[in-house]
Every structure is written in C-alpha cells, then in structure tokens.
What does this fold into?
Amino acid sequence: MSNLDLGKTLTRRLVIALAAPLLLLSAGTLANAEGESIRVISTSVTSEFPDGIRFQVQASGENEITSVAVRFKTGRQTRGTYDYLNLQQGLTIESELFLRTNTGARYIPPGTIITYNFEIEDSEGQRLDTEPVEFIYQDPRFEWNEVSQGPVTVAYHGPVKTRADLILDAIIQTIDFMGPLLGADTEEPIRVNMYNNVKEMLEALPPGSTTIRRELITEGQAFTNVGTLLVLGGGRAATGTASHEVTHILTHRAGDSVFSSVPQWLDEGLAEYGNIAPGFSYDIALEFA
It folds into this structure.
C-alpha cells in the first residue's frame, strides 16, 4: 500500500471514529424526543393536610396512554417514592392519586418541601417524564406568609411577623454557631412552620394519643430527616425552643447515616448546648451538676 493510500485509509477511519459519538448523540436526542407524542394538558398538586396530598394529571397522546406515575421525594430525604395514578386508558386521560399522610407511618409535617415529577407512558412504550417541581405541603387552615434568610424560611400567619423574625434570627444564630462546630451541612433548606397557639399546634403534630397530646404541650418538634421544624410562636421560650430544635436537624445532618445514628443523650446535650436562649431551669441544672 502506497503512502497515499495509507493516508486515505487513516483519514476514513478517523472520520468514522469522530462520527460515531455524533451518531450516538443523535440517537439519544431522538429517544428523548419520542415523548413528544405525549402531551401534558394540565397537572395539579393540592394539600389536604392532615389527610394527604392529591395529584392530578390530564394528558393526551397519539397512542393510547396506559399509565401515569408520580415520583416524589419528601423534604431533604435522598430516597424517593414511586406510585401510580388511577386512570382509564385512552388517547386522552384524566388521572388522580390521593396520597394519605394521616397515619403515624405516613405522616408528613406541614411546611415540608415535596419534589415530584410525573412519568406518562403509552401503548407503544414511549414515555414522557415531566421536569421535577417543588411543592410546599402546607397546612390549608391558614393563609401563610414567609420570612427567609439564607437556607431558612419561617412560615407564619396573622399579624405576628415580629415573632417570625425573632424565630428566624434565633435559628440563623444557631446555625452560624453550631454548623461549623458540628461540621453540618448549612446550605440545605430548613423550613419552619410557626403556630400561634396550642390548639393550632396540636392539630399539626403527628397522630398519637389524644390524652397525651392534650396534657403535654409541645412547644417545638424537629423532623430531622426532612428538614422541617414546627414551633409554637406564642410560647414564652419560642426562640430557645426553635434554637434547640434546629440543632437536632444540624446534628442529624452531621452525624446520622444509614449505618449509625447519634446517641439520644448526645443529641439532646448538643441541642441544649446550641440553644441561644436556655431557660432558667437549665442554668440551675448546670450549677447542681
């Protein structure tokens, strides 16, 4: 083979080698475009707290639509959940799923971020995945306003913005102090729902014994795995409670994993150490210790 022929052969091989990735890219583009045969008409997500969340989808397609599923992630959890909506198959469909949250095992605290998207498939195996969307699973009894700073958002209702600002400031101070100390992630969102009285707070808490819940006043509760905090804004120790509870979230982010968790005594000790407004009884306990 002459040098000229050898050069032509190498050139052809180089062209084929360069073209191969372009062919793969084109095939991938066409695969993504297959979903264009399915069209989403409308979607909606509605909070019916404490009972659950209602997902609804209307869609049409060139082929019969055979299934609609929703994939969603609760709060800052890394693992998601997958469930199918009810529908009657056809070229145009209306589908619905009511996700119950009113049991101890399925409870989701109000104010939590839900990230979801829909997966729609037709009889030819073509599928359309909608873009992920964030939805706040809020308590619909009230009209909520929000104050935010950095990763923290405090939701409140009524003419109590000053209280909400105090709660927000206490949480930010705690994060600035305890975040570096614990080595915790301080960028992930933390959402706070502030209630104005015990009755409001009682109906927002997880299902449990009615007697215990009425006799034991809960001023705050952190749901560490989802990054949500409920706090009684009208309480005398509201800022201290918020500071204490948000430290639980930071401790969880710094030390808990699927293999181990921070011991409860250490978790509570750190939460009170991080409390920027400890009560009088805390000072007495330290003196006696």
In short: The chain has a mean pLDDT of 85. The helical segments are 3-33, 161-182, 198-204, 210-215, 238-255, 264-273, 280-288. The first strand starts at residue 38 and ends at 48.
